[in-house]
Structure formats: C-alpha cells, structure tokens
Design a protein that fits this description.
By secondary structure, this protein is mainly α. It has helices spanning 15-23, 27-48, 54-71, 80-106, 109-118, 122-137, 140-156, 162-169, 173-193. The longest helix has 27 residues, at 80-106.
C-alpha cells in the first residue's frame, strides 16, 4: 500500500521494451534483460547437457549471450526468451555431436582405461604416466585438447590432427591449432626419450 499522495511505482519494463531500448544503445536495458532470465537459461542448459556437465551448461549460457549480443541489432525484440533458448539448444547439439564423435573414434571411457592399463610395453606404459601427468598439470584453457590428444595417443600411438580434435571436441579450429602445438612441445622430450617421436 502506498503512502497518501505517493505516486504508484512505475511498472517494470517488459522484455520487449528492454530489448528495443538495448537495440537503441541503452546498455543498462540489456544488462537488466539478460540478468532477468539468467537462472532460467542456466536451468534449461543443465537439462540439455549430459549429467555432471554443469560447467558446460554455464559455458553454454555465456556463449549464448555472446552470440545474442553479436546479432542483437537484427533481432526481433518480441521473443527474447525463445531466441536464447534456441541458441542454447543449438549449442547443446554441438556438444552431443562432439561426444558421439569422440566415443566413435576412441571408445568409451572404460575401454580407454583398459587400453591405458594394459599398454603394449613397459616403456609405453611409463611414457603414458608422464604424458598423463603433463595433461593434469595443464591449465584449464589447454586441458580439454590435452585430454583428447592423450586418449587418441593411447589408442593409435600418434597425435590426432587439428581437424580430428575439432571434430572430437567441438572446440574452434584456431584454438585447437594453438593448443595442439603447445602440448606437442611439452610432450616432445619424454616422447623422444621413449622412442615415440615424431608423434604426428
């Protein structure tokens, strides 16, 4: 209830009003719009992602927002929520395709563990221990590419190509190319010592 003679509070702007205002250059309107639905988008992304991939879900929402920002000038402002949900859905399909491709090439996680434990020589098993340690020590930016490279190396005794890593992880070509070269340089010395160099 409002105090006597106090004007009523103005109604909250609709999503459409905020979207139009943001398109006209009002950054604050965009901040309000994205913040209003952030948790709803996160919840949807977590339902779409494989179990235990909450970080992927959070990254999906962030990526969806960045895509939306880059295309906002041409967006029809009357269905903001549906637009973001659609972007998240399409990004999720990329993750599922990458997971399916990785399993097709490298086998399931259990199968990869059996290959690792068996190895095919004492020297190779010792080398894998060193390579696993190097992957574990990578910062988060390089680790996903490193894990894929290690799984591939365990199975085929060579490093996958840039295109194979892109297909198996869904990471951009430029990022994979940079990270692959960085990891190969780290692996070069132990692989030379074990007689497994060059490795592709």
């Amino acid at each position: 209830m409002h105090p006597p003679n106090s004007p009523p509070s103005p109604p909250e702007p609709s999503d459409e009003d905020l979207a139009r205002s943001f398109q006209q250059g009002n950054k604050e309107a965009g901040d309000i719009l994205f913040a209003r639905h952030r948790e709803e988008f996160r919840s949807y992304a977590r339902k779409c992602c494989p179990e235990g991939r909450d970080k992927d879900a959070d990254d999906l929402v962030q990526d969806a927002f960045l895509i939306a920002l880059s295309k906002f000038s041409s967006f029809r402002p009357d269905n903001f929520r549906g637009w973001i949900f659609g972007i998240i859905h399409n990004l999720t399909r990329t993750i599922h395709r990458a997971d399916a491709s990785k399993e097709k090439i490298l086998g399931t996680q259990d199968q990869r563990e059996v290959i690792y434990e068996c190895g095919d020589s004492y020297e190779f098993t010792e080398l894998l221990k060193v390579l696993r340690q190097t992957v574990a020590s990578l910062d988060e930016r390089h680790r996903e590419v490193g894990k894929y490279m290690l799984d591939y190396f365990i199975k085929f005794h060579e490093v996958p190509s840039v295109n194979q890593i892109v297909e198996g992880t869904g990471i951009s070509h430029g990022t994979v190319q940079r990270d692959r070269e960085y990891i190969r340089e780290i692996w070069k010395k132990p692989c030379q010592k074990g007689g497994f160099w060059p490795i592709g």
